[in-house]
Amino acid sequence: MMWLAILILLILLPIAWRWQFWRPTRKGLLVLMYHHIGHIDATDGQFPFTITPQRFEEQLLCLKKHGFTPIGLSELQNAMHTGQKLPAKPVLLTFDDGHEDNYQNLFPILKKHQIKALIFLITHYIGKEKGYMSWQQVRQMQQSGLVDFGSHTLDHARLRKLPDEEILRQLTQSKKEMEEQLGVPCVTFCYPFGSGGFDRRVRPLVFKAGYQFDFSTKPGINPWPWKGKKTLLRAFPRGGETLTDFYIQITRGKSKF
Ligand SMILES: [Zn+2]
Questions:
Q1: Ligand 1 ion: residues within 5 Å (CB)
Q2: How far is the centre of ligand 1, averaged over its atoms, from the C-alpha of 135 (Å)?
């Protein structure tokens, strides 16, 4: 009997390691973190950050099937400032960096399903660097009423490594440029390099610069109401993952180590 128990354990352990169904399910605000929507070779370094348009649509259907309601920035702001209730299982889709495939591949899908999204722009890359959107494309997405934009610094700076004045410049200058280009307040900020990009010195400066919401790459589902004591957590669906991984992510915030 002993060897049988050991055998079962040996089979179950790797499965439990790979698909972490044992994590507790969480209620609250689910935020998903994406980067590219497109096709890329599995050997490319961007592969984990790239979801195919087909898989992305499957994920949207999966969210719908499990009762999630996509929300936009306005719903988030109303819930924070006027106490308006969020839907029962709210989900906010976020995209980092402002890649051109967001305009080419993501935007048509958002329009088709009438789903909102929030995109964080590296303002000095927009209209300048290859592979990034132009301000015209950004404005076109904004005018659809489906896409809002936040700041991801001027040039993808690792804020933690910078002196206070330079951090504040990255925060306030990118905010100002966003507002000049888009004509609406820029209230959301996303840290480049996730947890490695900020620390306890950086975070208060984000709010000092006038932002209301800060997003990190820390995985999880946010308890709601969000008190602002910690950055907003985001689940991270990776390229090449299955819908089983996605289901674990949206119910538990994290699917693997
Ligand atoms: Zn980034």
A1: 96-97, 192
A2: 18
